[in-house]
Amino acid sequence: MKQRIGLFANLQNHDAMHWAEYSARRLLELGAEVCSSPEIAARFPREVGARILVHPVGHLGDTSDIIVTFGGDGTMLSAAQRFLLSGVPLMGVNVGKLGFLAEFGVHELDSALQALLQGNYRIVDRTVLEAEVRQTHYYALNDIVVEKHASPRMTRLRAYINEHHIADYRADGLIITTPTGSTAYSLSCGGPIIAPNARVVCLTPICPHMLTLRALVIPDDCLIRIEVLSDDGAVLVPDGQRQEPLSMGETVTVRLSPHVLKLVKHAQSSYFDLLRRKLLWAADAIGGESAPKGNY
Questions:
Q1: Given 15, 65, 73, 172, the catalytic residue
Q2: Which of 162, 163, 219, 242 is the 20 to 30 A CA-CA neighbour of 202?
Q3: Is 73 marked active-site?
Q4: Class of the CATH domain delimited by 4-119
């Protein structure tokens, strides 16, 4: 039975669309079925678009065995928002700069697509956060952020963990991050890097007024409640994908979601290989990667 590979791309990124078209051609040559949304198929040359199965983007997760995304980590987060509930694995092709989530580079695309069809890859489960405000639920692979709303002033937030009052934050905002998101916004605000299989979440303040307010790591089975104290309100931002205004006195609850996101990874590499490659942890002072010392 042929594998059916879905394509999801940043329509505003010329390079992303170029590599999506390239991949469609290669996958068809390799004998796979390829499907995409009408918006993507319409951008391909006619001889390619005519051979692609077209589905509304909302149904792509239910009709694909794996979805390959083209863009950067933002594209991966957008795909995660769309396809989380379908359970379809996502493989990210990075056409941007860093790419922690979209870890496959275009320089290895041919071999990666062949490996994909041969089953030579790993699938890892990543935890997801679920935020609730006004009986509406929001999901995030990386982080839930509550931050100031169109104001130069700091916002004031009160945080509870399992109904225990832990802190009042005077800051630009508060990041609640998964281990996956620990290398994103939280890291730039001084938060720790957390191995993705650690069963924790982290609360990282954004530019806090008090230097003693530091990132706090807690078990991921805790219930977190954030109350907005500022009279000019705040905004809820899940994975940087949208903004939901919050008024003074409103409360956001955040918990671990029962859903997980499945990510396609290199068969032989680990998270620590990714850290060394992306953050240059193994680079010496004159450039290049230092030789490993000993057997680990």
A1: 73
A2: 242
A3: yes
A4: alpha beta
